[in-house]
Write a structure and sequence with these properties.
The protein has 4 helices and no strands. The chain has 96 residues and is an all-alpha fold. It has one domain. α1 runs parallel beside α4.
Length: 96
């Protein structure tokens, strides 16, 4: 549901990392538990309501988006994926 917090240019800039991270986590969730797909479906169905609420909140904001962006650091999606990939590689290296 992080995607509901981004709009316009910031979403366009962050979308590749968000998509890669989401696909990786979805795959991991499906491998661990097939019931995970049901939770994903519920999340997708909840997105329109989350966006409506977000629009309502944004309509009442008193500070511009750029001023708010200075307070938050973007989540390092690609860095996390690279670190996880490296961890998996290390896990499968023979210990002999």
């Amino acid at each position: 549901m992080i995607i509901k917090n981004d709009r316009g240019g910031s979403l366009t800039w962050r979308l590749p990392g968000i998509l890669a991270f989401t696909v990786a986590k979805f795959t991991q969730g499906m491998i661990r538990s097939p019931a995970f797909a049901g939770a994903v479906w519920q999340t997708i169905r909840a997105m329109p309501q989350a966006w409506r609420r977000r629009r309502h909140i944004q309509a009442r904001r008193t500070a511009p988006s750029l001023a708010m962006d200075r307070w938050f650091a973007p989540y390092p999606y690609l860095t996390k994926l690279r670190a996880a990939r490296g961890h998996v590689r290390q896990h499968w290296i023979s210990q002999s």
